[in-house]
């Protein structure tokens, strides 16, 4: 245990002083904040349009009451969550990969493994460092996000909103750790510098971008410009009745989407933040009932990635693949 | 402490069909500076990898400081220090932080005092808080020795320790190796190409050719046994040529 | 054989023999082939939904899919070029220059009578030819798969449009090759060499469009460019600034027009000019590196 803590401590000191990693994290924070700023500008634009519309109605002598666009502050995080989903996971891959390749490249693996370590101490130290790092980083990011919502978005956050933000942050931590550990396992299992990274990038490409894109493409409503049902002038209630006849196809499409851990993460966080309309302003119990399977799949992915990293980063495996 | 620091019996390593080390039987008494010579690809680094437990043998046994490398690998690791060829460090950490890390990994109980001793021994006082990225090649090699001895091992393995050093660096390292042996009583096992260095540093040598140990004796006895040869280099080439023919 | 040709052939051989780009290549070609079949499956489901809607008496409109041309099946190809194609271009560009630094062959080359710009220009030409060959094969596969899915051979006009799409794709991938090569020469480690161009790619594909259109990142995976946000206030400023830099959106816009996508409007001239300007800038960045940088050591 002591050597695991020693390794984790060394790793965190090393990362804190790595300028490139600091720049990457700053970039991620700026990106997420920018998305909130853009969302708030977009909302202001909608409000301005609404007022213009009201003025036009008044000028034409029409006194009909038109509901104002409602602000749900947490929905402004959609872009930010999607950035964490795509770019955050990309950085997580790089971080996990560099945890192993820097040791291989410097030749410090031999220095470490010529010492009396337990079988899983090396991997354990790295995993612990990643867990601590992502917990601290994501917590910091969500504090920045909350501050941006309050200051830039002028969003009135309630007590429950902070809990929802914390739940979204917890899902984000698990999601990013998964990517870092998968990349760490791949870097341990490959001999040449760059091979592990490219393999991890291919995996990232398939899981984060291609599978969700295929799922999206298979959605009949996405096939026609403006939406299939809108072009056929079929309303939402009838849409459900029609789609009830295509459960097999929809289940296949859903399974394809669910095979991506990114979709599991997205569905759960979108629900807790109310970005998915059916969960907006709903109690947490209702959201949990609808999305617990997504959270459990995310946890299963976490368990799988921890196991993969533990098994791949043992002395025997890693030294066999050291240059 | 046993009288034999390193002993191997029929130690063999195969990579697929390639025999990297062929039934090596070798004994290095405690207190020696043993130099292992051999051409490129003779199997020198393979031996060091096996003896430092970085690799497992295909067959045969080896005992370091009374501990078997296969059955008591952690005890072996506690009793050895290792300096790989072209040693590298965590460049973002200072020398002291690097040494603290390796000392803790080696289970040193009061690392602070030990690190101070090692830094003083290796003439690093005042540089301990400099980041490794700022160190020259010679200083890195000395820092490599520091990490290898920070836990006070009884046997030290040095893989091509003078590789890439300038003449001053080579001379400085030679002084250190001899001091480690005479002042701290460490047994030293080193691989090297520089035969002139072996004459000045080592007390005994072994010659490895294509995975087989073809010669082992003390440096003094070796120089006496080949009166027709002017230097250790000539003797080495003579023995190697005899093996090939 | 002159030096120029020798370097090109050497580059083609090295790139073709590298296993990792081959993996990305397999994913790319596989997705190009699969895209037509995914489109076909979606079309079959739409036909089923349409029949059901008609059976329930909910519409009298004609099946909207009947109006769509076979080129519709190629629309997903565009997104695969933006995602996989660009990453492939980056990886082969980075590997090309990193290879010389890792193996220290840059010293062997630069100790001969070869100008760095000449050498890098020939390497870039080799990679451009490699991508051209890859896209030509992909175009043939794409046309073949669409013909299988539609049940008849593609018309000459549609075939020409697919070929044009891949010609623009070649131009779109070139700046990423150049960017990868420049990064492979200038970065201090192989990790940063790969990462820097990938970060730049993610900015161009996912971040700049958001500033100009307020489009959510995942919606940018749609093969048709995001419509501009209302041109007032914040977005009036940002969209004019970032739209020319959103290379992915420009490519999607031009491609949608080439494929006669009913959602696409406007002309392709400005888009083509922007893509060509990026290609020229990428090539210049790759070939203008100095001798000292090419020899610099990697710190992995």
Automatic annotation (TrEMBL), chain A:
Keyword set includes Membrane: yes
Transmembrane segments: 20-41, 81-100, 120-153, 165-189, 196-215, 295-313
Keywords, alphabetical: Membrane, Transmembrane, Transmembrane helix
Pfam family, one: ABC2_membrane_2
Protein name per Swiss-Prot or TrEMBL: ABC transporter permease
Automatic annotation (TrEMBL), chain B:
Origin: domain of life: Bacteria
Residue intervals of the ABC transporter domain: 6-235
Keywords: ATP-binding, Nucleotide-binding, Transport
Family: Belongs to the ABC transporter superfamily.
Pfam family, one: ABC_tran
Organism encoding this protein: Arthrobacter silviterrae
Coiled-coil residues: none
Lineage: Bacteria, Bacillati, Actinomycetota, Actinomycetes, Micrococcales
Example GO molecular function: ATP binding
Name this polypeptide is given: ABC transporter ATP-binding protein
InterPro entries: AAA+_ATPase (IPR003593), ABC_transporter-like_ATP-bd (IPR003439), ABC_transporter-like_CS (IPR017871), P-loop_NTPase (IPR027417)
SUPFAM superfamilies tied to this protein: P-loop containing nucleoside triphosphate hydrolases (SSF52540)
UniProtKB/TrEMBL annotation, chain C:
Keywords: Membrane, Transmembrane, Transmembrane helix
One Pfam short name: ABC2_membrane_2
Species for this entry: Arthrobacter silviterrae
UniProt keyword DNA damage present: no
Chain segments annotated as transmembrane: 20-38, 78-98, 119-150, 162-182, 194-215, 268-288
This protein's name: ABC transporter permease
Tree of life domain: Bacteria
């Amino acid at each position: 245990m002591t050597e695991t803590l020693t390794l984790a401590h060394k790793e965190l000191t090393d990362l804190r002083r790595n300028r490139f990693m600091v720049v990457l994290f700053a970039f991620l924070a700026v990106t997420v904040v920018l998305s909130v700023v853009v969302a708030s500008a977009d909302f202001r634009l909608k409000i301005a349009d609404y007022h213009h519309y009201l003025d036009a109605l008044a000028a034409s002598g029409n006194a009909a009451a038109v509901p104002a666009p409602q602000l749900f502050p947490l929905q402004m995080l959609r872009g930010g969550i999607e950035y964490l989903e795509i770019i955050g996971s990309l950085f997580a891959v790089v971080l996990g990969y560099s945890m192993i390749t820097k040791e291989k490249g410097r030749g410090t693996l031999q220095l470490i493994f010529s010492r009396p370590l337990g079988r899983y101490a090396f991997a354990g130290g790295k995993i612990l460092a990643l867990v601590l790092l992502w917990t601290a980083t994501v917590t910091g990011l969500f504090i920045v996000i909350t501050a941006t919502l309050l200051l830039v978005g002028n969003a009135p956050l309630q007590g429950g909103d902070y809990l929802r933000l914390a739940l979204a942050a917890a899902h984000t931590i698990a999601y990013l750790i998964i990517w870092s550990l998968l990349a760490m396992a791949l870097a341990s299992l490959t001999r040449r510098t760059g091979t592990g990274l490219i393999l991890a990038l291919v995996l990232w490409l398939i899981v984060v971008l291609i599978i969700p894109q295929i799922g999206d493409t298979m959605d009949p409503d996405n096939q026609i410009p403006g939406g299939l049902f809108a072009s056929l002038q079929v309303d939402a209630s009838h849409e459900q009745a029609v789609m009830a006849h295509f459960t097999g196809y929809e289940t296949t499409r859903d399974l394809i989407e669910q095979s991506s851990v990114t979709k599991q993460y997205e569905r759960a966080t979108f629900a807790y933040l109310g970005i998915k309309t059916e969960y907006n302003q709903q109690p947490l119990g209702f959201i949990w009932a609808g999305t617990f399977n997504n959270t459990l799949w995310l946890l299963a992915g976490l368990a799988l990635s921890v196991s993969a990293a533990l098994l791949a980063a043992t002395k025997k495996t890693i030294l066999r693949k050291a240059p | 402490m046993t009288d034999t620091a390193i002993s191997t019996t029929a130690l063999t390593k195969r990579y697929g069909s390639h025999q990297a080390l062929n039934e090596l039987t070798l004994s290095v008494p405690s207190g020696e500076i043993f130099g292992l010579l051999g051409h490129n690809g003779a199997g020198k680094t393979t031996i060091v990898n096996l003896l430092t437990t970085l690799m497992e043998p295909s067959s045969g046994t080896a005992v370091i400081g009374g501990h078997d490398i296969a059955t008591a690998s952690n005890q072996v690791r506690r009793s050895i220090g290792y300096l790989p060829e072209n040693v590298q460090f965590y460049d973002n950490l200072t020398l002291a932080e690097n040494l603290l890390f390796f000392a803790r990994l080696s289970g040193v109980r009061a690392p602070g005092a030990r690190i101070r001793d090692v830094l003083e021994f290796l003439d690093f006082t005042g540089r301990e808080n400099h980041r490794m990225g700022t160190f020259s090649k010679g200083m890195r090699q000395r820092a490599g020795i520091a990490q290898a001895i920070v836990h006070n091992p009884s046997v030290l393995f040095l893989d091509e320790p003078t590789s890439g050093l300038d003449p001053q660096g080579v001379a400085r390292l030679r002084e250190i190796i001899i001091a480690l042996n005479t002042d701290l009583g460490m047994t030293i096992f080193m691989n090297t190409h520089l035969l002139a260095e072996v004459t000045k540093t080592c007390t005994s040598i072994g010659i490895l050719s294509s995975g087989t140990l073809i010669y082992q004796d003390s440096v003094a006895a070796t120089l006496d046994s080949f009166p027709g040869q002017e230097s250790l280099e000539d003797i080495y080439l003579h023995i190697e040529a005899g093996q090939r023919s | 054989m002159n030096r120029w040709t020798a370097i090109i052939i050497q580059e083609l051989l090295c790139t073709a023999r590298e296993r990792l780009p081959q993996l990305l290549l397999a994913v790319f070609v596989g997705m190009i082939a699969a895209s037509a079949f995914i489109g076909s499956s979606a079309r079959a489901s739409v036909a089923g939904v349409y029949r059901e809607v008609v059976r329930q008496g909910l519409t009298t409109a004609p099946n909207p899919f009947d109006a769509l041309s076979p080129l519709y099946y190629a629309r997903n190809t565009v997104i695969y070029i933006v995602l996989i194609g660009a990453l492939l271009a980056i990886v082969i560009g980075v590997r090309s220059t990193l290879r010389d630094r890792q193996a220290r062959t840059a010293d062997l080359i630069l100790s001969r009578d070869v100008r760095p710009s000449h050498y890098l220009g020939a390497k870039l030409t080799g990679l451009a030819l490699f991508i051209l060959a890859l896209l030509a094969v992909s175009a043939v596969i794409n046309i073949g798969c669409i013909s299988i899915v539609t049940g008849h051979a593609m018309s000459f006009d549609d075939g020409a449009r697919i070929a044009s799409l891949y010609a623009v794709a070649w131009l779109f991938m070139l700046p990423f090759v150049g960017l990868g090569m420049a990064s492979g020469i200038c970065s201090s480690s192989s990790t940063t060499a790969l990462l820097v161009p990938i970060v730049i790619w993610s900015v161009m594909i996912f971040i700049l469009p958001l500033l100009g259109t307020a489009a959510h990142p995942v919606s940018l995976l749609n093969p048709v460019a995001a419509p501009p946000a209302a041109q007032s206030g914040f977005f009036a400023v940002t969209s004019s600034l970032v739209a020319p830099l959103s290379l992915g959106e420009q490519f999607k816009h031009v491609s949608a027009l080439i494929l006669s996508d009913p959602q696409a409007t406007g002309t392709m001239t400005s888009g083509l000019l922007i893509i060509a300007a990026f290609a020229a800038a990428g090539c210049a960045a790759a070939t203008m590196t100095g001798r000292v940088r090419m020899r610099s050591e990697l710190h992995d």
